[in-house]
Known about the structure:
Number of strands: 4
Largest sheet: 4 strands, antiparallel
Structural class: alpha+beta
Shape: globular
Number of helices: 4
Strand order of the largest sheet: 1-2-3-4
Strand content: 25-35%
Distance between the termini: 16 Å
Amino acid sequence: MAAGEVKLRTARPDDAPAMAAVDRQSWPTAMATGADGFRCRIAAFSEGQLVAETDGRIVGSAGAQRITRQFFAANSHSYDLVTDANRFTASHTPDGELYQLIGVGVLPAFRGSRLGRQ
Length: 118
């Protein structure tokens, strides 16, 4: 693991490419979120999109949205429906009572450091 201190912060739109790079190394290709998907998530619910960085480099990310019980009950539980095809633009509700963690990704060099738990 890198020597620098790891800091957690809310993601910014310009973090999207680095978040996508982390996702590609964390998930199978078909499940990884691309930069455009992360930009949409940040636009829909910035407070729920977090990055971990050390020495100015993003080494992990986590994404969440808020949804209503009604939305969840009314839709099939397929990933695409409850995440609006991984964008959150139609599924996120600012005052939704359910906080839905969608995914956590960590670069291979940082696995085992409990970064995902942070």
